[in-house]
Amino acid sequence: MEHENPNQWYGTTILCVRKDGKTVIAGDGQVTLGSTVIKSTAKKVRTLANDTIIAGFAGATADAFTLFERLEAKLEKHPGQLTRACVELVKDWRTDRYLRRLEAMMAVADEKTSFILSGTGDVLEPEDGLIGIGSGGTYALAAARALKDIDGLDAETIVRKAMKIAADICIYTNENLTIESLPRK
């Protein structure tokens, strides 16, 4: 994500790790405006559909809240069908005149599947159960890939270590994490 506009809010790292029947999504808390940290404790990850879905966003905050609401409505219309709800959301996102202007990406997961959603029409399911989006997403994703096959590391431990690595590298990422997991504890 290029950070050229000093009046635009930036700064997000979202990481999803799926390992040994556990799905964990974490988001850092940093929000920046230009080169200034505006907030360090933003919540960019939340549960939806009665705690059966986890979603994290990267991008403009108001846009992300709009997308959370729209996804929640699709999940209510198609209960238990995450894939269909995501496809329906992305179809609307790509074709609706208002939604087309939204600048965000989402990582969405239930206990069985994980997706990256974008306004360009993408509903991508990663082959390895790992997703990294946002400014520090590629750093966190690379770290998670390196850690995933280490015996004794569960999904949450991998997420915490990978997000720490991303925060150490990416100036738009911090260590104030929101972490949600499925199945719920």
Quick synopsis:
The chain is of the alpha+beta class and 185 residues long. The chain has 4 helices and 12 strands. A 5-stranded antiparallel beta sheet has the order 6-7-8-9-10. It has a 4-stranded antiparallel beta sheet with strand order 11-2-3-12, covered by helices on one side. It has a 3-stranded antiparallel beta sheet with strand order 1-4-5, with no helix packed on it.
Q: Can you give a write-up of this model?
A:
The protein is an alpha+beta fold. Helices cover 31% and strands 30% of the residues. The strands form three sheets. A five-stranded antiparallel β-sheet has the order 6-7-8-9-10. Helix 1 packs across helix 2 and helix 3 crosses helix 4. The radius of gyration is 15 Å and the shape is globular.
Question: How are the elements arranged and paired?
Answer:
Layout: E1 9-10, E2 13-19, E3 22-27, E4 31-33, E5 36-39, E6 45-48, E7 53-59, H1 61-77, H2 82-95, E8 104-109, E9 114-118, E10 123-124, E11 130-134, H3 137-148, H4 155-169, E12 178-182
Antiparallel strand pairs: 1-4, 2-3, 2-11, 3-12, 4-5, 6-7, 7-8, 8-9, 9-10
Helix pairs in contact: 1-2, 3-4
Strand order of the largest sheet: 6-7-8-9-10
What is the typical, i.e. mean, pLDDT?
Answer: 90
- The structural class is alpha+beta
Number of helices: 4
What does the largest sheet look like? 5 strands, antiparallel
